[in-house]
Amino acid sequence: MTEKSTVFLISLGCAKNLVDSENMLGILSSTGFRLVSRTEEAEIVLVNTCGFIQAAVEEAIDTILEVINLKKKGAVKTVFVAGCFVQRYGYKLLREIPEVDGWLGTGEIHRVVDLLSNHHPKAPPPFLIGRPSYLADHTVPRMHAGPVHTSYLKIAEGCSHRCSFCTIPTLRGPFRSRSLESLIAEARHLADLGVKEINLIAQDTTQYGKDLEEGSCLEDLLERLVQLNGIRWIRLLYCHPNGISSRLLDLMDSEDAICPYLDVPFQHVNEKILLSMGRDFQEEQPMRLIERVKSRARNIRLRTTLMVGFPGETQAIFDQLCNFVRTAEFDHLGVFTFSKEKETAAARFPQTVTSKEAERRRDRIMVIQAEIAERKNQEMVGQTVSVLLEGTSLETHLLLQGRTSTMAPDVDSRVLINKGKGIPGDIVPVLIKEAHPYDLLGEIRTDIRE
Questions:
Q1: Are 162 and 90 within one domain?
Q2: What's the confidence (pLDDT) of residue 2?
Q3: What is the CATH number of the domain that holds 63?
Q4: pLDDT tens, residue by residue, 304-316
Q5: Residues 6+ apart with CB under 8 A from 189
Q6: Do residues 208 and 324 share a domain?
Q7: What local confidence, expressed as pLDDT, does residue 1 receive?
Q8: Same domain assignment for residues 286 and 427
Q9: How far, CA to CA in Å, does 224 sit from each of 183, 228, 251, 321?
Q10: What does the pLDDT look like over 145-189, one tens digit per residue?
Q11: Is there a contact between 245 and 207 (Cβ–Cβ < 8 Å)?
């Protein structure tokens, strides 16, 4: 490939994968490749995949086959695949999908230029894979694929928990934190670019720093981040229940820049199921933790994810989970059905819940949550809240949309605005006029300045 080859990147999966994609885009751009926004303009298509659960694997395969079809039609010249799907299935992919021109594992994203540059049509496709140990820092080029006003900051890579249902330790390697100074340097650079909202991500953000010799921790990082000029909102995602310290809650109470929002994936509430899941010993009962968070003066909003249909989940245990959802009254909630992944310990457990029943249980919890969410949203009517504007709604094509500090990008609800004007990236006061199960409707108040 020449330096002037055009590249289109497709990023699948989670926000952590998106940061990898942005790093690869930055590396490619800094070494002479030309990035384009449509497949029709590209000579090279690079697909960065997810492989966490079977649904993600199927999405990866479908996407790869679609791009291969473009290659067969002559619309693109070469197709490369990176990410968790590659790390999970390894060299067997050479046999299963021979049309792909090269492969890149999760620990080799810094070698993306080698992958794209060393392809030769008559040679075997390059396959760059190894045990994941790479950790990108602030010196690695990064090109933002989304709006400039918001960004993810990946504070660590990998995972050292041993949940019985999860493939992440295999796909991403052990938990390894970035240095505090590297993170501050990147956050400062993001602020200089105009980023107003930083979302901290890792497989477990509360684990941050515990593997570092200098003994940094998440609270230390937050104390440094709030001092940066330009960063208005700092949000915590993926917080393990055992990591919610009093010091962390004190910081959220005292620092306006830290969003009053915690994403705590409980997974389940039943002790037997949690033990089978291999979840770390719960130092605090889930409801006690929720009460401790909700007792804070700042009205911290909670998001969680739950799994239904795990082996051994009886109807009585599921009823216990439903009661937990009713009692906890989460502000945001996602539910996943158990996925039997061959590489995990849980795949060997007797399967006691059918896929159809698991889906029914998921739907039942989402009905309960919808009732809770609508009631909570109704309580917002008449309030004026700060909203980060994100542009025009894709569904309405007319209304502006945005998020409050208690709404994370991509996964939570939103605020639609039917009166007033603003620029994406502005944080404006919005009077909430209507509430729906997941979205709010309001108007920008011109008599108040943020």
A1: no
A2: 45
A3: 3.40.50.12160
A4: 999 999 999 999 9
A5: 138
A6: yes
A7: 44
A8: no
A9: 10, 7, 12, 38
A10: 888 899 999 999 999 998 999 999 999 999 999 999 999 999 999
A11: no
